[in-house]
Amino acid sequence: MKRYDSQLEIGGTKLRSRLFLGTGRFPNPAVLQQSLEASGAEVITFAVRRVNLDSVEDDSVLQHVEDRSLVYLPNTSGAGNADEAVRIAKLARAAGLGNWIKVEISRDERTLLPDPLETLRATERLVREGFVALPYTSDDPMLCRRLEEAGAAAVMPGGAPIGTGLGILNPYNLGLIAEQSGVPVIVDAGLGSAQDVVQAMELGADGILVNTPVAKAQDPVAMAKAMRLAVEAGRLSAMAGRIPRKPYASASSSTEGALFGGPYAAGSAIEGRRAETSAEGLRR
Amino acid sequence: MKEELLVVGGGIVGLSCAYEAAKRGGRKVTIVDRGDFGGQASGAAAGMLAPYTENSEQPDPFFRLCLDSLRLYPEWAEEIERLSGISVELTHTGSIQVALHEADMLPLRTRQRWQNEWGARAEWLDAADLRRLEPGLSSAAAGGLYCPEESHVYAPKLVKALEAACRRLGVRCAGNAGDTVDLMLDGGRVRLVTGTGGRFEADRVIVCAGAWTGAFERWFGFAVPVNPIRGQICAYHSPIGEVRRMVFTSQAYWVGKRNGTLVCGASEDIAGFDTSVTERGIARLTRWSGRVFPALADRSPVHRWAGLRPATLDGWPLLGPVPGAPQAVVAAGHYRNGILLAPVTAKRICDVLDGKLPAAELAPFAPDRFAASARTLG
Ligand SMILES: Cc1cc2nc3c(=O)[nH]c(=O)nc-3n(C[C@H](O)[C@H](O)[C@H](O)COP(=O)(O)OP(=O)(O)OC[C@H]3O[C@@H](n4cnc5c(N)ncnc54)[C@H](O)[C@@H]3O)c2cc1C
Question: How far apart are CA A8 and CA A231, in angstroms?
Fold first, then answer.
């Protein structure tokens, strides 16, 4: 049984926060910095193609986070196949961005959905090359299992296409992935607001990666804090064990043995018991 | 009696609002700046009118505002030139967003797809096309997106021309008026008091204080989170035509001006209200310049300067009346696009003053939209 205060560990690194933040699309660096602070995120992700690889310290985004102790998760977004993704990953490592890589491969400019075959191929190769590979993948349980077998350090199924804010379109699949996975499951892409984050964590995710829903929120700093709280709330809620769903009401305060039973006390207690019974019946 | 209108802040936004209000007539317009006219960020800007390049994601209300403004520009600029006798050097070069990696291409194609539905007429350039259109580009450039509609102006001249046009139209221009120490909005009137003892009274006020607009929150009564983001920028000597179009990359842009300079910008620094130029900030630009345009590798910029962009939490400007004090209107927070947005801002704000535009139309830009979350965060 997982304990709610246990630490997330990926590729041998223990992480303080289960919230990963993407640095793209922020309206300006001040808002990025304040959002990063409010999110408590320790892992940040960014597109390698946007980074000034000649001198990372000169980079227009990374220069604003350089004095924080963060784990960099560069991503291969824009890659259309495994070859490109591997090339991008090597460029990032050579530029001193570390050996974590989020594999992100798409060839559909409209949905940006990950290409499953190329993602699997790239993951296999990157693992062989010594990378800590975190593939962004569709929410397919079998594919996630194959990625794990290929050596992925974590799997990152999407809730919905990147940037759509549609939330978790297939909670059933995501639940299966979380249940079966031997490596951490980080739900990535498509989330819209804190409720999606809570849902993902309740479904058993080990962490969340968000970018657009924070960066494009009206107040990104407030949303970053909301996301941090949602990760915590969702995880606690999952650990705490929720009540079973029932079709009818059951009184939240039992009137039996109440100090001051009202005139209708007896009647409502009976109603309450009836509701319990029929719910039991439905469950069987 | 004519309505009295006070405009606070003499940058591009304030000048454009004063100009538009005076042109429409029926008001006595006064514009005040605590310093000289021409603004702070406004005089520093590269003058690019680039609604497509600046909005790569989706056709949201901000993109549409930017696009409306681009379409207003030719007529607006011509009128200002006519009134002022000053050329603002509106130049229709088009722009190229360069893909330095193969991985840059997919997002550019996404952008091209939706923007062409909005009239961008953007064309994909392969490496050979690029070399033909912009021979000075490094051979590392893999392709790019050409956006023919994007243009630029010479911002320092545009603010001069606007000031001259305002004066021509009888706007009272009160420069070096000192910083605001009080703004009274009770009783439906407006009274502004400055640190040097200046007193201004009017029926309505438009606050266009750029990066300093946050200072007005104590008089508005709600949070106005505007951050100054410093942009360092420089210019090379460059024969006209060396770089023919505006060229954008993830780290910097270049735009050739008619005075024989090539402007290269710009950093986005968090440095409070400090407007100084740093060695590191400029070196970043020059190193990158040499990489993208090899001919610049052994040249040094001849000018360097910096401006403070007014940045809001969502990157969109604050446009519209102050709730609870409708005689006060805000036009600020234009961040990277104040030059582009000047005409549309002035027209929308004057439409609000004239009662022609319901404030709800400007809801995405409501000046108090951050009030609730700011209160919650404390
Ligand atoms: C390096 C750089 C490059 C840029 N390039 C572009 C570009 O290519 N295209 C584009 O569209 N935009 C560009 N911008 C952005 C653009 O410059 C700004 O969005 C725009 O200038 C903002 O105009 P403003 O009038 O609000 O602010 P400012 O020009 O800063 O003017 C504000 C004025 O208000 C005055 N003021 C402040 N407080 C008070 C007070 N209490 N009382 C009286 N006066 C007051 C100040 O003295 C100042 O004159 C660039 C900005 C920078 C820094």
Answer: 13
